[in-house]
Task: structure prediction
Amino acid sequence: MKILTTVKKVVDVELNIHVQDGAIVEDGLQYVINAWDESGVEAAVQLKENHGAETTLVSVGGGDNTDIIRRCYAMGIEKGIHVDDPALEKADSFIYARVLQKVFEKGDYDLVITGKQAQDTDNGQTGIILAEYLGLPCVSNVVGIEVIDDTHLKVTRSGDTGDEIVELALPAVVTVDVSINEPRLPQMRGLMMAKKKPIEKMDLAALGTSAEEIGCAAPKSEVVEFMPTEKRAGGRKFEGEAADITAEVVKLLAEEAKVL
Amino acid sequence: MAKILVVADIKQGVLKSSTTELLSKARALGAETAVVAMGSGIAPLAPELAKAGSDTQYIADDASLELFSAGPYAAAVVDAAGQFGADMVWFGFSESSKAVAPRVAAQLDAACATEITDVTLGDTVEVIRPAITNKVLQRVKINTDRLVAVVRAGAFEADEGITGSENVVQLAAPAPDTKAVVREIVSDTSGEIDLGDADIVVSVGRGARNEAGVELVHELAKDLDAAFGSSRAMVDAGFMPHNKQVGQTGRIVAPSLYMAIGISGAIQHLAGMNGSKVIMAVNKDPEAPIFNVADYGIVGDLFEVVPILREEIQKVRS
Amino acid sequence: MNPLLMSVLLIVALGVFARTMIGKIRLLQALQPAERVNHIAERVKNMLVLAVGQKRLIGRRRERSSGIMHAFIFWGFCVLLIRSIMIYGEAFQHGFTLPLLNEAHLAGYLYTALKDVMEGIVLAMILYAFYRRIIVRPARLHNSFEAYLVLALIGILMISDLLYDGARYNLTQLYHNPAGIHFFNNPRYGTEFAWTPVATGAASLISHLGMKANMALMTAMFWLHICTQLVFLNILPLGKHFHVITALPNVFLKSLGYPHEKPKLLDLEDEAAWEDESLGINHIHQLNWKQGLDLYTCTECGRCKDVCPAHVTEKPLNLFEFNDRLKHELLANADKVIQRFRLAATLAQCSDEAGAEKIRERMAALNSEKQLVDDVIAEDTLWACTTCRACEEVCPVTIEHVPRIVAMRQGQTLMAEAYPKELNPALKGLERNGNPWGIGYDKRADWAEGLGVPIMAENPDVDYLFWVGCAGSFDDRSKKVSKAIVTILQKAGVRFAILGTEEKCTGDFARKVGNEMLYQMSAQENIETLNGYGVKKIITACPHCLNTLKHEYPQLGGRYDVTHHSVFIAQLVTSGRIRIEPSLAGALTYHDPCYLGRYNEVFDEPRSLVQAAAKGVYKELDRCGRESFCCGAGGGRMWMEETIGKRINLERAEEIVSCQVANVAVGCPFCLTMIEDGMKELEKEEEIRTLDIAEIVAQSLA
Result:
């Protein structure tokens, strides 16, 4: 089985994000591997370890992605591709999906594993759109992958009413949730070996396409402004007669928060 | 006039309120509205779909649509969008919507926006949506004629006086997805709701003191169909199994509602649940750090509060 | 006596002994190097106090009776050794004596008396030892055949010598000395027998047997004594009583300047080390020679496990068994270890790559077949240690357990990548955001908002850096301690600053769980920051930070004068910059943090501060000071689950509860968390408040 996984370099969501003049203040931010993609990489490496798959990783955009690709090498990925091009600066999910489509078509992959979303945009679209472009079956929000045979997987999708057990014919695309696994922490030995491994870097031309072909000039949507979100209104504390305050909180949960 | 197709949210044969909320918003924007519904045995819901605010009801009612499958569901939506000539397709917030919307967008060559909290029409169409784990909001300009959007839960309000007209269009049953076949739907084998999946998580902490306390809180979780979690202290004390521990070394959860019952809020615990949309806490110590993150905090002994909580929730829910 | 027989006996016994010892020493020589032969005066002093003085045997309140017993056996044994030399000489020269110790000098008489009394005392102690082992049966003791054999042999040595003297007395004093036996008889001091009450007592037991029997008995006891001693000598190196020979050198060679060997700074870029699996301890030949000597020296007395928080709470860590297993693994692989050592020497001189490769292959083939962790030491055993050093502090022969455990963890983490996976979130948090909670680094100084605390970057012209630490920065409970410290420093007018978001975890927990990579990354960044500001003096509230900054950062070029806040505050009080008025109501005790007390010898300042602030009575815990009981969080255990046995913090909290106090003072954020958690579990958090020293002082400022 040949597996293609994707990783995106994203902002560390543990940090406070400040917005100024409609843009995110980059000062003090640090960038890390997208958590969902990290789970996708772990899933691919586990398939490799347990079933002898070949694993390739692709990262699109993000400038210098050497660190995160090496991290994935240290986790067990065998080959890494980094596609970057100035034309991708304003890329939306559709353009990312087009790039991934080109990468997929250059290889002979049986399975694409992507994170179900990226923690910077939280869009959750690219993997599914890629499947549409490739005309492949797709299961999203996957929390379990088992191999049935060379051409079929049994995947578990966390759906609205429970876990859906899906028999998936390969080639296919799955997008995984972080609950699928606990990604391993790359260790020194792997990181040292990763330093010696080459990363295949290419721009759109090298990928055999162009900014026009994949629609870079006209993204379907673009972020025109960032705004701060209101801070968590924590600390609304109710003290007093248990019966009264409890009734009040339940009322607020139902009517204000709308979570009951 | 913009044409907005709303995808009906039907769970176990029941039309969810999000459909009315979305249609209310669409009408408020002055759009022409239609609704598309997929499922098995849902045809009788047509009057209800009209009443929810739609003027046309595209209904794909087929036994093959009993279990959710993203491919056929997307095909039905695309079919309806085509027939209706929709400028926009709106989904309510659910896992199914998140799976279907990008497919529909790709097939319609439309833009796609998920988790939107607001939309403006006009010369330029724009949506507002949270990003970076809800830390910022984005204003997103839509550059295409068509937009597929998933609306965040609770973003739009239902208009009480809303109504539409019944005009049912039966859709042909979409072809089943033979390459991704849903075999069955299972929940946690123990009958417990998994912490990762649950919309509501109720967690018990040291305040519960003993078996009886744990059982009391468990009953609350059952009432709410919530997953039942625990602080590290209760796991260490042997009252709760390891896989129920929410926190740094346990499970990390981000439900819509997190109820911390008798949990003081050690930093390790907070790290596992502070992504929750709404946090409610019960603790008898008014200084407990949990109150610094709780949206709603009740200062009181859980043995007194939880029974009242259950009663009150029963009242609101019925 | 028969010089020929004596010569044969000596040659055979000493020959066999020498052969055994050469084998043992060769094995040590083949182990890794360690720098232990320096500062001779200090080493001699250690040996005199700890080994000759038996400090840890008689100095411990908890183990005094057995300590006294051992000390007298040891001293008696030493005294008897001199006598033994004279007995050996007797075989070659009638009436042989050592210079000074003869009848011409009072010293000779005094020695004779001392020897005699000591023999009696030793015999009594041997009886007490049998009584303890058979009747009392203390839990820490491991009753083996060897233990009884050795006790019996020592008993025989004493009895044979006493009976030998007894027979000499009878023959010379009752039977007119028919064989011309030599004995002290200086008119100034009388006969030697006037000085030997025990031997004369023994004589009276055998006087009725008659002259012939006494003659025979004297000869028999002479040879029995000799043979027993020579047999004893040859038995010693074979078992745990090797310590009779190795204890003195082991104490002489103990670590100086820091209570145990500091973790080695590993060169993680050294590819040969990765190839050779020599980062950390992965194979038995990777012990250093001093660690090998430690294994030889372990007597299985069990004092270590008696004070070990992991063992006391039923975790599978039994340090003497740990040592015993390593020792057996070492001895079982002795030939391989020595061969490997020789090959390594050959390899160092080998110039052609093909030949070198061959040697390396041969060396790899000489690794033990057993996995050091798993087959020899169980994983749960290795990870149970809190690195609290209680074991080392009580070990009478100064065995250093903890560095070995940490080095084995390094092997597990670096080479085998087999460490408890529940550490991952903490390690990842350290890697990304410089703290084990993984909270965004940008929030590190949030606690100080509005307190007017200068940040180093904006205000580098200060006298002290207040190193806040991760807990003090991110843990809500510990933030209160940080604020209390600020209150005190401001009140005293100390010019200080914090690093703010530039501070990172010192890397202590990562190093103790064997993750040298993350430790070095974190440490290097911190050192760069600290040196960048030219920081000289650091105050910190975290003993783990203190220990790492003070003792481990110098390895990486970070040299600072680091002070625990308790010591610094005590200095402020002494110099009159602040004044404490008693304000804390209720009885009070103090829990010594391991890394403050045992590691850094701070015992008095915290006590003086909290006593000054307390209105109520101050009580010591049963386990306090050097023998304080760990809270359970050290050695990275804070970030691991504790699923086996009783929780360590609960054990400690119960001890505090039984001390009947209203307040327990601590000086470490991890102790604070663990003990407060224990109190909550016992539902005592309202009756007994857990407070940091700084909090107590801050609320008692005059």
Q: What stands out?
A: Strands of chain C lie at 185-186, 190-191, 464-467, 496-497, 537-540, 561-564, 588-590, 663-666, 689-692. Chain C has 30 helices and nine strands.
